[in-house]
């Protein structure tokens, strides 16, 4: 009997499964770009990456992605805590 890993690899490589994974990642990235509109060049920093033959990831590649997403202390104007935009979180959750 094949291992779970071999079965998972077989299923993940099926054309319909692969198309579904890529389609969902593209949907999340498109939603995230829409949520990022109005924030300068940020929509251009959201894309889909393919880390291996089975996965597709919607990612924000901006150099300050973590601070943008989760929030940060304003070190420029010293105005205190700047809440995160939660763009990727909301896009993955299907919030438009």
What distinguishing features does this structure have?
alpha+beta, 4 helices, single chain, 17% strand, 96 residues, two-stranded antiparallel sheet
Textual characterization of the structure:
This protein is α+β, with helices and mostly antiparallel strands. The protein has one domain (4-93). Helices cover 46% and strands 17% of the residues. The protein contains four helices and four strands. It has helices spanning 4-12, 15-36, 65-70, 87-93, and strands at residues 46-49, 57-60, 71-74, 80-83. The strands form two sheets. Strands 1-2 form a two-stranded antiparallel sheet. Strands 3-4 form a two-stranded antiparallel sheet. Helix 2 (15-36) crosses helix 4. The protein starts with a helix and ends with a helix.
Brief overview, please?
This protein has 96 residues and is an alpha+beta fold. Helices cover 46% and strands 17% of the residues.
- Number of separate strands: 4
Overall mean pLDDT: 94
Count of alpha/pi helices: 4
- Main sheet attributes: strand count, strand direction, barrel closure: 2 strands, antiparallel
Shape: elongated
The domain count comes to 1
Q: Order of strands side by side in the largest beta sheet?
A: 1-2
- What is the CA–CA distance across the termini? 44 Å
Order of helices and strands: HHEEHEEH
**In what range is the share of β-strand residues?**
15-25%
Q: Stretches where pLDDT falls below 50 for ≥5 residues? A: none
Helix coverage percent of residues?
40-55%
Give the class from helix and strand content and strand pairing: alpha+beta
Cα-based radius of gyration, to the nearest Å: 17 Å
């Amino acid at each position: 009997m094949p291992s779970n890993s071999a079965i998972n690899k077989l299923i993940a490589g099926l054309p319909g499964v692969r198309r579904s994974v890529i389609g969902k990642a593209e949907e999340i990235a498109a939603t995230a770009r829409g949520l990022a509109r109005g924030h300068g060049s940020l929509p251009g920093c959201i894309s889909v990456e393919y880390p291996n033959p089975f996965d597709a990831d919607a990612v924000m590649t901006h150099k300050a992605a973590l601070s943008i997403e989760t929030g940060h202390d304003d070190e420029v104007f010293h105005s205190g805590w700047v809440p995160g935009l939660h763009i990727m979180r909301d896009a993955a959750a299907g919030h438009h």
